[in-house]
Automatic annotation (TrEMBL):
<dbReference type="GO" id="GO:0005789">
    <property type="term" value="C:endoplasmic reticulum membrane"/>
</dbReference>
<keyword id="KW-0256">Endoplasmic reticulum</keyword>
<keyword id="KW-0411">Iron-sulfur</keyword>
<keyword id="KW-0812">Transmembrane</keyword>
<keyword id="KW-0408">Iron</keyword>
<feature type="domain" description="MTTase N-terminal">
    <location>
        <begin position="62"/>
        <end position="170"/>
    </location>
</feature>
<dbReference type="InterPro" id="IPR006638">
    <property type="entry name" value="Elp3/MiaA/NifB-like_rSAM"/>
</dbReference>
<dbReference type="InterPro" id="IPR007197">
    <property type="entry name" value="rSAM"/>
</dbReference>
<comment type="function">
    <text>Catalyzes the methylthiolation of N6-threonylcarbamoyladenosine (t(6)A), leading to the formation of 2-methylthio-N6-threonylcarbamoyladenosine (ms(2)t(6)A) at position 37 in tRNAs that read codons beginning with adenine.</text>
</comment>
<dbReference type="InterPro" id="IPR005839">
    <property type="entry name" value="Methylthiotransferase"/>
</dbReference>
<keyword id="KW-0819">tRNA processing</keyword>
<dbReference type="GO" id="GO:0046872">
    <property type="term" value="F:metal ion binding"/>
</dbReference>
<keyword id="KW-1133">Transmembrane helix</keyword>
<keyword id="KW-0472">Membrane</keyword>
<dbReference type="InterPro" id="IPR038135">
    <property type="entry name" value="Methylthiotransferase_N_sf"/>
</dbReference>
<dbReference type="Pfam" id="PF01938">
    <property type="entry name" value="TRAM"/>
</dbReference>
<dbReference type="InterPro" id="IPR020612">
    <property type="entry name" value="Methylthiotransferase_CS"/>
</dbReference>
């Protein structure tokens, strides 16, 4: 097989080309060929079964480095891809230098994120690494020049990452960018019961839907994720149950707009949330992701009740983007500032202490000084404890990129002014001296503390006592900063162990079905085991017979196409040892 294949395969089934011999043609040719006598090779030149031939490429034995940029939805996709590859036998490594292949999972929200992505591709090429691209950048614009000739796995095709990686390792360029459909409608994406490796074994990220119902003029993500497509409630509940059984104590619900959930399948977000809280064990918590104002307005009463539930964080991320109605109209945000205020005021009244996080874009095309001052007044009014400030970046292909732009210096100054206002107040000073219940789930960036969150999803740093990790404990708040508080565990406090099972080890694959485990034990899927422990002959025969359990009955590689491809290879070798008499 050649080291590389110049043509790009739009799907893996294209490996069997139209030029290959058909079964009938092969049968006809066989009548005119005669065996060629081969000389026996000496024993010392015979390759043993325990080592692969020096020129062989055996998928499943390589090391893969995965880098993900962007939102929690993207991070969940990255975890799923890592899990499938590890379950198949690949080694997921944190060392990019030792990796054979780089899987780069991109974000298209802002220019800097795409710049990092592009630079990583260049670095991988300079290091002679195999490359597979994923995420929103190649999904939205697969024909960009710097993506030419590289393999791409689409955002709805992550359950086929093993196939794409295998073909890439063999030198092919494969692009799977299609949408998943069922019963005539677009699906939320790949199955939720795929194997995954959680970045944090205590936190499960569940994407409840993909896409959205909006058409914001600045948004590139819409080009990649498309229109709203929601997962059924029963599948989401099953995923939550499975997560708790694997030691998870905190669930994040994520999507491009959680508030729009279910509108395409005849249900809604509150209905899903009430079903989920029924299965959350004591000591575990649920965090709701970002929701835009228009859709949450319809469910304010129910949302307030849910956010008051003891196992749901009293936290909501509601992007306002601007406090100017004219700017919001140019953005096509489908709400006005009064709608945002109605949502915030209602929730603050009905859910005492709730944390409202929001986003603001500085310097959107057409934004005047007066428009920006309205935004400054809004921040001064609500003093948001969590505020994501973004300087506007025109994204290629979006309507906003074609609008008259605000000068770069003005955008930069407005971003600076808003940042100064945000840092002028300390939202947690009044909480010093309080006794709070917190759930400990992470380690701080400086590795000096463990990170916990109180019922309002406010960050509390606690001592690095391994006994606290994954536990819900009571602490006394003794210090407050801009983005955090510090707490000391109360000596007589009760400690809740949230999960019904011990958490998985870091890097351990979750979500392996009993079907997969049985097939691994029976040897029909050798790659669930460390590759080096399996003789090469066994590996090759098992690989050729393999169909991934999570692809059976789904959108996996067609077995017929695989058989034909392998048959074509065998015919090539067969004819190589024979001569034709005309």
């Amino acid at each position: 097989m050649p080291a590389a294949c110049e043509s790009v395969l739009e799907d893996i089934e294209d490996i069997v080309s139209a030029e290959d011999l058909k079964p009938h043609d092969r049968q006809f040719v066989r009548k005119n060929v005669f065996p060629k006598v081969r000389k026996r090779t000496s024993q010392k030149n015979v390759q043993t079964d325990d080592e692969p031939p020096s020129d062989s490429i055996i998928p499943g034995v390589q090391k893969i480095w995965i880098r993900t940029w962007g939102c929690s939805h993207n991070n969940s996709d990255g975890e799923y891809m890592a899990g499938q590859l590890a379950a198949y036998g690949y080694k997921i490594t944190d060392n990019s230098a030792e990796a054979d292949l780089w899987l780069l999972n991109s974000c298209t929200v802002k220019n800097p994120a795409e710049d990092h992505f592009r630079n990583s591709i260049k670095k991988a090429q300079e290091g002679k690494k195999k490359i597979v691209l994923a995420g929103c950048v190649p999904q939205a614009q697969p024909r960009q020049e710097y993506l030419k000739g590289l393999s791409i796995i689409g955002v709805q095709q992550i359950d086929r990452v093993v196939e794409v990686v295998e073909e890439t390792i063999k030198g092919h360029s494969v692009r799977l960018l299609g949408q998943k459909k069922g019963n005539g409608r677009r699906l939320g994406g790949a199955r939720l019961d795929l194997p995954k490796i959680r970045k944090n074994p205590l936190i499960e990220i569940i994407s409840i839907n993909t896409g959205c119902l909006n058409a914001c003029t600045y948004c590139k993500t819409k080009h990649a994720r498309g229109d709203l497509a929601s997962y059924p409630i029963e599948e989401l509940v099953d995923r939550a149950k499975q997560s708790f059984q694997e030691g998870v104590c905190e669930i994040w619900l994520t999507s491009e707009d959680t508030g729009a959930y279910g509108r395409d399948i005849g249900t809604d977000l509150p209905t899903l949330l009430w079903k989920l809280v029924e299965v959350i064990p004591e000591g575990a918590m649920l965090r709701l992701g970002m929701t835009n104002p228009p859709y949450i307005l319809e469910h304010l009463e129910e949302m307030a009740k849910i956010l008051n539930h003891p196992r749901v964080y009293a936290f909501l991320h509601i992007p306002v983007q601007s406090a100017s109605d004219s700017v919001l109209m140019d953005m096509k945000r489908e709400y006005c500032v009064a709608d945002f205020k109605q949502v915030v005021d209602f929730l603050k009244e009905k859910v005492p202490g709730i944390t409202i996080a929001t986003d603001i874009i500085c310097g959107f095309p057409g934004e005047t000084d007066e428009d920006f001052q309205e935004t400054m007044k809004l921040v001064e009014l609500y003093r948001f404890p969590s505020l994501f400030i973004n300087q506007f970046y025109p994204r290629p292909g979006t309507p906003a990129a074609k609008m008259p732009q605000v000068p770069a210096a003005v955008k930069k100054q407005r971003t600076k002014d808003l940042s100064q206002l945000f840092h002028s107040y300390n939202p947690y000073d009044h909480k010093v001296g309080e006794r709070q219940t917190v759930l400990v789930t992470e380690e701080s960036f400086d590795s000096n503390y463990y990170v916990a969150h109180n019922p309002f999803y406010e960050q509390v740093l606690v001592p690095k006592d391994p006994l606290l990790m994954g536990k819900m404990v009571e602490v006394n708040i003794y210090e407050a900063g801009k983005h955090f508080m510090k707490g000391q565990p109360v000596s007589d406090a009760r400690v809740h162990t949230a999960s019904i099972s011990r958490p998985l080890a870091k890097g351990e694959v979750s979500g392996l079905t009993e079907e997969f485990r049985r097939s691994a034990q029976n040897g029909t899927n050798w790659k669930a085991q460390p590759s080096a422990e399996i003789p090469v002959k066994t590996r090759l025969s098992s690989w050729m017979a393999l169909q991934l359990p999570w692809q059976q009955g789904g959108g996996g590689l067609k077995i017929l196409s695989v058989s034909l491809a392998l048959l074509a290879v065998l015919v090539m070798f067969y004819y190589g040892g024979m001569k034709t008499e005309l």
